[in-house]
Write a structure and sequence with these properties.
alpha+beta; 5 helices; about 40% helix; 4-stranded antiparallel sheet; Immunoglobulin-like
Length: about 350
């Protein structure tokens, strides 16, 4: 305890007295390890500064895609002459190579004469390839016409189309007549049943019209110098004609007779059928009338049987009552009968 107090007191005196007092009381000062001089080091060349590490926000930022942003357009069925348009700009005829486009929405159009336009909007993702398959629907047929003579005119259903040769003429589906004409030649007329999407080729051949002209010559009409040799009697032409005409008339007569016989058989069969139907109808009507008569008779008998006792009772009472009472009773009987059988009697 004493030594601790002495140490604290010595420390306080050394602080108050200054460095001189501290040198005199070396024994009371706390011991410090002796310091050695450090050897001098040669300066090294400065090292290159490393780049500062990126903050966490930059590490979490989305990565920029490294792939190409491409648009690939194909045809479901190859169509010759089809052209591709992207955002109303013509790209070219199919087949086309993959297109490098900007990310976002683009309008794709595929067009071909004689086909309905294919139009579609697609969204292309950045750094990815987007494929579109276009399907074209045919709305007309295609006609090509050639002729074996120059300057031949082509007509469709009577209307001029132009001068042959013609290619890729659009025809609406249906039946059409194509005529190729040229003055001094026989026309070549063909009929087509056109279907959409089909190609039709006409190679017209126009034959020249030959005019028959009278030719005069100095040669004699008869060049036979010897009398004709007859092999025998020849059958006159009139006889042959008469035989053919007679055979034709007989054949026509046979056909007419056969037609008349068939018509008569059909008429007889139809008449028999009609007569049978009439007979059946008449019999059914008679049966209905008989049943109606029997029903009425049976009803009348039933009504008479029910009314007869009432009449007899009335007659009995009539004999025993006065005239006034008889009239009243008769009226009551008639009223009762009408109430009970009025509906049946009225029918």
């Amino acid at each position: 305890m004493t030594s601790r107090f002495v140490g604290v007191l010595a420390f306080a005196l050394s602080v108050a007295a200054g460095p001189a007092f501290a040198q005199e009381d070396d024994l009371l000062a706390p011991l410090t390890p002796a310091t050695k001089e450090k050897p001098k080091r040669t300066k090294k060349p400065p090292k290159e500064k490393k780049p500062a590490p990126k903050p966490d926000d930059e590490l979490l930022a989305p990565l920029t895609p490294s792939g190409k942003t491409e648009l690939i357009v194909k045809l479901a069925v190859p169509v010759k002459g089809a052209k591709l348009f992207v955002d109303d700009n013509e790209v070219g005829a199919f087949p086309v190579q993959p297109l490098t486009v900007s990310p976002g929405e683009h309008t794709i159009a595929v067009k071909r004469a004689g086909y309905g336009d294919f139009v579609k909007k697609v969204t292309v993702a950045a750094g990815k390839s987007t494929e579109v398959v276009a399907a074209l629907e045919a709305v007309a047929g295609f006609l090509s016409v050639t002729a074996d003579v120059p300057d031949a005119q082509v007509f469709l259903d009577g209307s001029p189309l132009g001068t042959a040769p013609l290619t890729e003429v659009l025809l609406p589906p249906g039946n059409h007549e194509v005529a190729v004409r040229k003055e001094g030649h026989r026309p070549d007329v063909q009929r087509l049943a056109v279907r959409a999407g089909k190609e039709y080729q006409i190679n017209a051949r126009l034959e020249p019209e030959v005019a028959v002209a009278a030719v005069t010559t100095d040669r004699p009409e008869r060049t036979e110098l010897l009398p004709p040799v007859t092999a025998g009697p020849e059958l006159p032409i009139e006889t042959v004609t008469q035989v053919d005409e007679e055979a034709r008339r007989k054949a026509v007569k046979r056909i007419e007779d056969e037609i008349a016989r068939l018509e008569k058989e059909q008429a007889d069969s139809l008449n028999q059928r009609i007569a049978q139907l009439k007979a059946n109808r008449k019999k059914r009507l008679e049966d209905l009338e008989e049943r109606k008569r029997k029903v009425r008779q049976s009803f009348d008998e039933q009504v008479a049987a029910q009314i007869e006792p009432v009449i007899q009772e009335g007659q009995r009472l009539e004999r025993s009552l006065t005239d006034v009472e008889v009239n009243e009773l008769h009226a009551r009987i008639v009223e009762k009968v009408q109430e009970r059988f009025g509906a049946a009697l009225r029918s």
